Amino acid sequence: MRAVSPRGAQVFFRMLGSLPLLEGRWRPPARGGGLLARFVERSVAPPHHRRVRQAFLVALGGIYFIAFTSLGRQVLGLHGSRGILPVKDLLDSPRLAALGRERYLKVPTVFWRDASDTALVRGIRAGQVLSLAVMLGLAPQASLAALWALYQSYVSVGREFLSFQWDALLLEMGLLAVLTAPAGLRPGAGLREPTALEVFAWRMLVFRLYLGSGLSKIQSGDRTWRELTACDVYYETAPLPTRAGWAAHQLPRRVQRYSTLSVLALETVFPFLVFAPRPLRLLAFWLLSGLQGVIFATGNYGFFNVQSLALGLWLLDDAALGRVLPAPPPARPRALWRTAVAMLAVAPPLALGALDILGRFDRPRRMPRWLEWLERRARPLRAVNGYGLFAVMTVRRPEISLEGSVDGRTWREYPFRYKVGALDEAPRQVAPHQPRLDWQMWFAALGSPPAWLLALIVRLLEGSPEVERLFAGNPFPEQPPRFIRAVLYDYRMTDRETRRRTGAWWARERTGRYLPSLSLAPPGATYRLEWAAEA
Prior knowledge:
Radius of gyration: 26 Å
Oligomer: single chain
Number of strands: 5
Number of helices: 23
Helix content: 40-55%
Largest sheet: 5 strands, antiparallel
Order of helices and strands: HHHHHHHHHHHHHHHHHHHEEHHHEHEE
Shape: globular
Distance between the termini: 52 Å
Structural class: alpha+beta
Strand order of the largest sheet: 2-1-3-4-5
Number of domains: 2
Strand content: 5-15%
């Protein structure tokens, strides 16, 4: 993590320390003041947030349910004993064994005890049950703590397939929710208001999420963002496009440039309204929610857009939700010791989050030892993360086609469920489901073959049914193929005229081999895979 200048940190923490003192202290003028007084009263007077917290926790429980359900459809194919990257192989690796007890801190997971296929499936079921409990308001604090630990367990051993920013964001949201959720078996909206520091911590996360994405685009020096041409290629090169994305790609270039400029403005200017008076904060809520709606319609980014929309609830207050949720009973006053405990709980993630943002502006400098220790311990837990999607745009769309053959002459393609493939197949709306293999195939096409792709080919040559179910179909139902190769194509979206005339959504051109023909070596051979000459 990049350190910040002592002066910048002092200014921030001085502002941070003053926040709890504002809680409940402001009083509107008794009379007079006119329009300005009413504006100040609505903007500065501390509002209530119990309904906001309750609505957010219900939404968070739903997001956890989506995440576990989505992962459950793929977990054995990805990480089971006959999956692409088995969990057991990772946990039994000599590299982790050499760490001794430190390995439990480096890889925090409940699967150290049991990494069998049964345990992986049971973990998914437990996650679904706990998610429903949070949605129903049953012991939310305890249920959220168990959910966070369980999802952390999958992410810690998931390697590439659970390395997406929304996985890290869910863990950060989940941990902060544990620290701010009301205690009790059925607390409803809670007996006490969230402290000002807790509300600030949530708004700080919203701020970091959007501003981090905007700054990463600007600081990357990417030409498409600098010249406002990013949206010219965005819809065509998105990992998993949608029909709406295909339609948006047909818009005039002037509209695309305006869209690019709007994205940069929404991610670099409007995040500061998160800390603005109430009317401006509500404006930021609607604008940022609209941005997420457009992204959801034009691309499949798992449950990321749902997460972002749920986080936006913290820009509201109970008055804004008055027509949606009933008013809770009057809140009990918060004792001083409860406020102090709440402050101590959210202070560490808030401090690390502030350093993440400040570190994007200041030069690297030495951090205090306690901050270095805190950052080092928090890193494996993904308690605080940096965000920045699409800092560099891809201007072409390479796609990998996996093809199998029995005789080395006739090749049949493995059809993916959601990845771009057949030219006449319309892009699908799959979010909030996260097809993790399809996503990683998009990343693999942008570089050299990753190790997991070779492991995937091994499983297909072995005929692993768990891995085969990750695909839309099995072109070799009777026996596994003897050879598998990877071919690289360059895809482009068709225009409206071509679509009407041919029915094709895509046009493609073969650019070469990504991997030559591979086959399993005979038993006892030194290498698992061997190159095979193509006919």
